[in-house]
Amino acid sequence: MNIHEYQAKQILKEYGAPVSRGVPVLDAAEARRAVETLGGPVWVVKAQIHAGGRGKGKFKESDAGEKGGVRIAKSEDEAVAFVEQMLGKTLVTHQTGPSGKQVGRIYLEEGAAIARELYLSLLVDRETSRISFIASTEGGMDIEEVAAETPEKILTFSVDPATGIQPFHGRKVAFALGLEGQAMKQCVKLIDTLYRLFVEKDCSLVEINPLIVTESGDIKCLDCKMNFDSNALYRHPEIVELRDETEEDPKELEASKFDLNYIALDGEIGCMVNGAGLAMATMDIIKLYGSEPANFLDVGGGATKEKVTEAFKIITSDPQVKGILVNIFGGIMRCDVIAEGVIAAVKEVGLQVPLVVRLEGTNVELGKDIINKSGLDVIAADNLADAAQKIVKAVKGGA
Ligand code: GDP
Ligand code: MN
């Protein structure tokens, strides 16, 4: 799960990490009050979306211009004007994709005087099963780019969970970043703080880009991206509260309410499958026969008729879907339950696109029988390859 920059900075602040003073706002009146509270003389106006690259991003609407989602204001009026220009607009960055993201919240901060921009992040390294640090002197730019062009400027190491975070880790980072004096001491403390935060909050990523050295020689977290392990959210109600549903795909949000494993994709064939492995195989074989899946959907092992109905409704609500492939291997799941779910959903929402159903396993005859007797225009398939070929053919304009 993802949160906004201002929320991540609030958590950093609670842990004692250095951040600028700031106030999140939803409209111009709030912005006016926030600007006065912060006092200036420089304010930073930051669009809050779940994507990076805002500074270099562009608004789709012309009046917000080419100026990007992070702007420096030199007067109260200018700061409020920037807020008004950004709110409600669609910001396109290299991370949002071409459709961009609508800006519903703005974070106003006191401006920091930057001497150097650095990079620091923590993530779960699956290879070593440890938390890894990445640090670089090249802050404010994409770390992927730094890794490709000047990999020697990146320091990475992982922390042994048995001994935990140690002062030498902090000194190692400070040395690599060329920090001295007070900044060095602050860095050692920050590394300890971030590791503790990462573990306690069950993060999967904490990225501070840029971490800056101010002109007065202190370090500060100027931007922060924080992701959390969704499987650990049950023990963090305070994080769940930070969820911004407007940032999420409405179909994925709906699916999560019914405990369906659903991920929206860009293709044209909607898939309903039981089991993550079978779902992956189904997506692969759709690609093999020349089309693209519109989603990943695993209805799970013990899905009820209601769950299947909801899953079907979510698939058909996607205007990109030109055909549906239901591929079920009934182990724990019974084929007749799937058949009933599909029929119930079609009765409720109608069926505008071709539907191929491949059932196999427990109660398969009963399932097929239910579908045959339903009078629905369903194309039956015998195996996975047959099913994929049939739906691709139906979508591409064949018989
Ligand atoms: P991103 O573009 O989404 O990664 O947003 P950031 O929060 O990283 O801001 C982008 C850039 O804006 C930073 O790399 C800085 O160069 C600049 N910036 C952000 N905050 C400040 C600030 O307080 N003072 C100054 N001078 N520049 C800032
Ligand atoms: Mn950034």
Automatic annotation (TrEMBL):
InterPro entries: ATP-grasp (IPR011761), ATP-grasp_succ-CoA_synth-type (IPR013650), ATP_grasp_subdomain_1 (IPR013815), SUCC_ACL_C (IPR005811), Succ_CoA_ligase-like_bsu (IPR005809), Succinyl-CoA_synth-like (IPR016102). Succinyl-CoA synthetase functions in the citric acid cycle (TCA), coupling the hydrolysis of succinyl-CoA to the synthesis of either ATP or GTP and thus represents the only step of substrate-level phosphorylation in the TCA. The beta subunit provides nucleotide specificity of the enzyme and binds the substrate succinate, while the binding sites for coenzyme A and phosphate are found in the alpha subunit. PROSITE patterns: ATP_GRASP (PS50975). Binds 1 Mg(2+) ion per subunit. Pathway: One-carbon metabolism; formaldehyde assimilation via serine pathway; Carbohydrate metabolism; tricarboxylic acid cycle; succinate from succinyl-CoA (ligase route): step 1/1. It comes from the Bacteria. It comes from Thermohalobaculum xanthum. The lineage of its organism: Bacteria, Pseudomonadati, Pseudomonadota, Alphaproteobacteria, Rhodobacterales. This is Succinate--CoA ligase [ADP-forming] subunit beta. ATP binds at residues 46, 53-55, 109, 112, 117. Keywords: ATP-binding, Ligase, Magnesium, Metal-binding, Nucleotide-binding, Tricarboxylic acid cycle. Its cofactor is Mg(2+). Heterotetramer of two alpha and two beta subunits. Substrate binds at residues 274, 331-333. One of its GO terms (cellular component) is cytosol.
